[in-house]
Automatic annotation (TrEMBL):
A GO molecular-function annotation: structural constituent of ribosome
Pfam families associated with the record: Img2
Keywords associated with the record: Mitochondrion, Ribonucleoprotein, Ribosomal protein
Protein name: Large ribosomal subunit protein mL49
Localization, UniProt: Mitochondrion
Stored Gene3D superfamilies: SUI1-like domain (3.30.780.10)
Family of this protein: Belongs to the mitochondrion-specific ribosomal protein mL49 family.
Biological process per Gene Ontology, one example term: translation
A GO cellular component entry from the record: mitochondrial large ribosomal subunit
Amino acid sequence: MFARCLWGARFFSQPAAAGAAQSLASPPAVAKYSFFVSRNSNGNLPVYSDIRNGGTRLLVSIRNVDGNASDLAKELSTSLFKAGSPEARRLKVKTNHQHVVIQGGRWTQEVNEWLKAKGF
């Protein structure tokens, strides 16, 4: 009846590939948390570093937190570093509505890796 295009387009009467149907039917498993950290328009996690007070106060902030930001702060403070380590003793986590601010060091990469490990 109609000729099939060279680049693989199909007509509505033709069946779809089995792999495409399965990928639409079963969404990927996502961990359930009471918070969600959405990525920015470039596809990166919204983790930013800031230096205040002439370089003596180092801050890491996580923006665009949807849900319960205080749960994210509690989980960060307990599981980012091993308990009793020098980093864990310096770590201070505070929340400000949809932002989480971490004081005590330059931990942007560690926070990024932690969020990626959690599935964000």
